[in-house]
Design brief:
heteropentamer, A alpha/beta (about 230), B alpha/beta (about 240), C mainly alpha (about 230), A: about 230 residues, 11 helices, 10 strands, elongated, B: about 240 residues, alpha/beta, 2 domains, 7-stranded mixed sheet, 4-stranded antiparallel sheet, binds adenosine-5'-triphosphate, binds molybdate ion, binds magnesium ion, ModB_ABC (chains C, E), molybdenum (chains C, E), molybdate ion transmembrane transporter activity (chains C, E), Molybdenum transport system permease (chains C, E)
Chain lengths: ~230, ~240, ~230, ~240, ~230
């Protein structure tokens, strides 16, 4: 049986790279199933055959741990997302001032109820004191990738997306939003109870902790927690 | 339960505003005409006998078997009747041949039997056998419907104006055959027609109806006296005009 | 009513508006289209028929993406939107209607077309020799006789528009009062594990739709219609 | 373009394997019978005249107007014909009254006009007016179909076995009316029938057909000589049997 | 074929399997169900009809969630799954089939039921007086005569099963080779912005479906069928 990863949609590209690397190293096979974090957590609860859950938040792994479906000791933050303000055109990168000028009809972000990046975007807008003013122009997507699509297709002029999505795009300009403006977008991984005895799964978790994986995650546009105390938290 | 041959039936009921209340018998063989003005309920009676009018109350015994009484109702498909509807409702997705053999025992091999070719010849259907029935003229459809009912090998034949759309030449070929068929198979036939000549030639008994009621069946040659004043024969007033 | 949040009420009204407008337009489009497709038969009409059904085979969110491209400034939709000074057809009620129309079209066209076919040519020929123009034949004979098919079209497209979600989510932008319909709100609740609210909305939608569909189907079973 | 009254027509073409090639004229008034064996193409000819058979080649001129020639084809609904089909195709979603007035000029107010009540009386439809047409007997349907065609006020009446399902009493009431109608309106009627008596009474001209071909029209009393041997009248062989 | 990733091939096969199995089962269920619903008319059959259409009014992912609960260890599905030692009906091909069946049922039942209605009672009565049992009438008369409706049912449910996605994702769990169908794979590609692959898959799905639907519709227009 292959090792089954359940990966939050925003991380699937990076997860694929990690899995490829891992498979090359170990000769094990790994499959990736994706969905929104909430959906994946529900599926785990209903008996989905996943071994490892890479969530987009900290809350869902925690809930799984407390209901005994995941192994508490395995939980750690594998990536910290970075919010950016992005627009697809060339010229100056979009920033707070551009939002304040209001030369646009639609600002895209993702749904705070379902995607952490959405909540971060709203916190940012509030920190800038722009939320109430811009509210009528906000268009909300269900995930960060859909938010990107709204902007890429030109329907919204600019929007808040993840750095991981746009860092390698040739087109467009972005500004990384200072981490101080929103609560950190910690993404936690956890070993699920059904894989408690699975050596391969533990091996993957170890790999995910390792320097090479962290390097790949950082290159994809995420931050990684510093120091061992983070991982052991 | 009676053991006598033939049909003993009485039906009453209503369809919409139309009420019917009929009672009659058919002997075990021979052709009986059913006649009466348009809308008097002739087709309804045939449907009751065949078991198609489930709302009908009454009874219906055939050759000593109960087809319908207060408690029992044999469904239409279990009654060995042949029925030629007033409007030939052929199966539009089948060829003439398939329509003809649909009801005959042994079904698909029936087209090889001698009965088949006899019926096909009399009804002049040879050239039409592989035609789709939607591509037939009115009279051709009617002939297929007759053939289908005969090939079913019924024990009781119910025919609702079966020859109304046919030319005289065809009629004069089919009528004697029907008469012979009834005799050979020794089955009773109930035959609806408005055509006095047809009735005269075919039948020896007539049941007259009006407004959902049957009159006592009368021997055919008595009909002139009982009925003609009520249903003047077509030729009389016309010729006198 | 007490206890029902205003955003749910807003979303409910919007959903009903969308379902009614879409279904109304669908039937208006589908009736002549189905009539034209039904008679006379030409081989290329089968192709039109197949094309109509194609939006069904793409996942709604993917279809939504292509619609975004079409609606955007560089697509035909943007060109149209510029007529009234907008940049895009997306994020507007109009856009939702267009998306829903496209998606539900086969549910409306197919049953009506079948009903026209089942009617056969007899009534049409009868109407012709009674001097009825093709137009009069269409609305006095064909439409009433295709009634069952029309009701099926209404039921399927109404239900589907209420439940449709992927496309609406994608091209709507989830703007409260403008494009946030119930299905999107419901999805939010489910995603954020607000089960009580989600169950209530889902229950309400199902109940309401049940009654509506029941009402519609009972129309289907009226044996006859006396058009004055 | 000819200016003469009546119909001049010739059609040729094929439907499936059936080929037809007919040529005939109708005078500007009076009833002409069209007769011939089942499947010979009578109904097809009527459909060609009405413009329902679009594949037919040929020409059709009526009262000096071109209905069809090599280039032109007036669609059926623009031709002022009244057509009684062999199978009464009423509109099943309408009442008898709605069916009757559907084609009449002025439509819904037509039921108030005197013509309406006259036709309804002759055809004995008074009690059926508010009935749905699916609830009629065979003969009742046929009468509604006749009424519908007459109330359309046609300039040419085409009737395909219109009385085949009617009882003698009704026939002897409707036939004189048809004759009078044709005379009063001064319109030609083309009348398909297999019933020799009907033809004798109604018509003064007969067009005979066989296998998709017309014979030269003959005056009615000549028919016995030209046709009777080919289409023996029904009564003869039967009575002789 | 070169260039096509194996996971796409796997997903394609799985999709076809799901579409064919679902469509086949749908028609098998819908034919007798529609026949039973069509004659004779009873008021409560309208209710059954409305209930059948209800899955449509819920957003697929929400319906998928409820199905997940029903399939899971605490629901009736888990009870059934325990028969062969599984914990849940979800995350398996069977589960997908059940979910798709439920969702596409109205598309199959409604057109067939309409076709049975349009046929009228004449053919049924003719068959009865020719001695055909109800069962023989059903398969020799009713089904062939309802052919157009059956084809429409097949087209709509086939297309919809190919494109369906919300339910499949939820109850399937996106497991490669088992429940990852093309629509889910396509969604994954779109989510990870692999547009080139996504366009290729979408194009392939549309092309294939177009041909399939075209083929099916051409069956619809066969004027007659000679069943031997
Ligand atoms: N769609 C069709 N395809 C092939 N042949 C057809 C089609 N429709 C009619 N026919 C044939 O055309 C011929 C003429 O048909 P038509 O209905 O004109 O006959 P008819 O003279 O009116 O006969 P009847 O007295 O029986 O009504 C018939 O032999 C019939 O079999
Ligand atoms: N569904 C119905 N609802 C109401 N009345 C009906 C219905 N069907 C038939 N009738 C009426 O029942 C009566 C009997 O009909 P039936 O068909 O038995 O007449 P019939 O004697 O066969 O007439 P015809 O010679 O014209 O065929 C008619 O008056 C008809 O109007
Ligand atoms: O990957 Mo998410 O669940 O869109 O934040
Ligand atoms: Mg009758
Ligand atoms: Mg004819």
């Amino acid at each position: 049986d292959p090792l089954r990863l359940a990966v939050a949609a925003n991380f699937i590209q990076t997860a694929q790279q990690l899995a490829d690397e891992f498979m090359q190293r170990t000769d094990l096979s790994v499959t990736i199933s994706s969905g929104s974090s909430g959906q994946l957590a529900t599926q785990v609860r209903e008996g989905a055959p996943f071994d490892i859950f890479l969530s987009a938040d900290t809350q869902r792994p925690e809930e799984l741990v407390s209901s005994g479906l995941a192994i508490a000791s395995s939980r750690f933050t594998y990536a910290i997302g970075q919010l950016v303000l992005w627009r697809p055109t060339t010229g100056i990168p979009p920033d707070e001032q551009m939002l304040r000028n209001g030369q646009f009809a639609h600002l895209a972000l993702c749904n705070p109820a379902t995607a952490p990046y959405g909540a971060a975007a709203i916190e940012t807008l509030k920190a800038w004191n722009l939320y109430d003013q811009l509210r009528p122009r906000l268009v909300v997507a269900q995930s960060v990738s859909q938010a990107l699509e709204l902007i890429q297709s030109g329907n919204a002029e600019l929007g808040f997306v993840a750095l991981a999505q746009v860092s390698r795009l040739k087109e467009g300009k972005y500004t990384v939003i200072p981490e101080s403006l929103y609560s950190p977008l910690r993404q936690d991984a956890v070993l699920l109870s059904r894989a408690g005895e699975n050596i391969d799964a533990r091996q993957f978790m170890t790999f995910l902790h390792g320097p090479q994986a962290r390097d790949m995650i950082r290159r994809a546009g995420y931050l990684t927690p510093n120091g061992e105390q983070e991982a052991a938290r | 339960m009676t053991q006598d041959q033939g049909l003993r039936a009485a039906f009453y009921g209503r369809i919409g505003a139309f009420r019917y209340n009929v009672e009659f018998t058919l002997p075990g063989h021979g052709i009986t005409a059913l006649s009466g003005p348009s809308g008097c309920g002739k087709s309804t009676v045939l449907r009751c006998i065949a078991g198609l009018e489930r709302s009908a109350e009454g009874y219906c015994h055939f050759n000593g078997r109960i087809w319908q009484d207060g408690r029992k109702f044999i469904p239409a498909w279990k009654r060995p009747v042949g029925f030629v509807f007033q409007h030939p409702s052929l199966f539009p997705h089948m060829s003439v041949r398939q329509n003809l053999v649909f009801g005959s025992p042994g079904n698909w091999r029936a087209s090889l039997r001698s009965g088949f070719s006899e019926v096909v010849t009399i009804l002049d259907l040879e050239t039409l056998l592989d035609r789709n029935v939607t591509q037939l003229s009115g009279g051709e459809k009617q002939r297929v419907a007759i053939g289908r009912a005969l090939l079913r090998r019924p024990l009781l034949l119910l025919m609702d104006e079966p020859l109304s759309a046919l030319d005289q030449a065809r009629k004069s070929r089919i009528l004697p055959y029907l008469k012979a068929f009834s005799k050979r198979m020794n089955i009773p036939v109930l035959y609806i027609s408005h055509d006095r000549k047809e009735i005269d030639y075919l039948t020896d008994r007539i049941i007259l109806m009006d407004a959902g009621q049957t009159f006592n069946p009368s021997i055919n040659h008595d009909m002139e006296n009982t009925a003609c004043r009520k249903y003047p024969v077509f030729s009389a007033p016309l010729l006198g005009e | 009513m007490k206890g029902i949040p205003t955003d749910v009420i807003e979303a409910t009204i919007l959903t009903l508006e969308l379902a009614v407008v879409t279904t109304g337009m669908l039937v208006t489009i589908a009736l002549p289209l189905a009539w034209w497709l039904a008679f006379p038969h030409r081989w290329w009409k089968s192709m039109v028929n197949a094309v109509i059904s194609l939006p069904l085979v793409l996942p709604p969110s993917v279809l939504g993406y292509y619609l975004l491209l079409a609606f955007g400034p560089t697509g035909p939709g943007g060109w149209i939107a510029r007529l009234w000074g907008a940049r895009t057809l997306a994020f507007s009620f109009h856009g939702l209607v267009i998306g829903s129309l496209l998606y539900a079209l086969p549910f409306a066209v197919q049953p009506i077309q079948n009903a026209f076919h089942a009617m056969g040519r007899h009534p049409v020929e009868s109407a012709a020799v009674l001097g009825a123009s093709p137009w009069r034949t269409f609305y006095r004979i064909a439409i009433p006789m295709a009634w069952r098919g029309v009701v099926t079209a209404i039921v399927l497209s109404f239900a589907h528009t209420i439940g449709e979600f992927g496309i609406v989510l994608m091209i709507g932008g989830d703007i409260p009062g403008q494009t946030r319909v119930l299905s999107v709100a419901l999805y939010d609740y489910v995603e954020s594990a607000r089960w009580h609210d989600a169950n209530m909305i889902a229950g309400g939608m199902v109940m309401f739709s049940f009654l509506t569909i029941l009402l519609l189907s009972s129309l289907q079973n009226r044996k006859r219609r006396h058009t004055s």
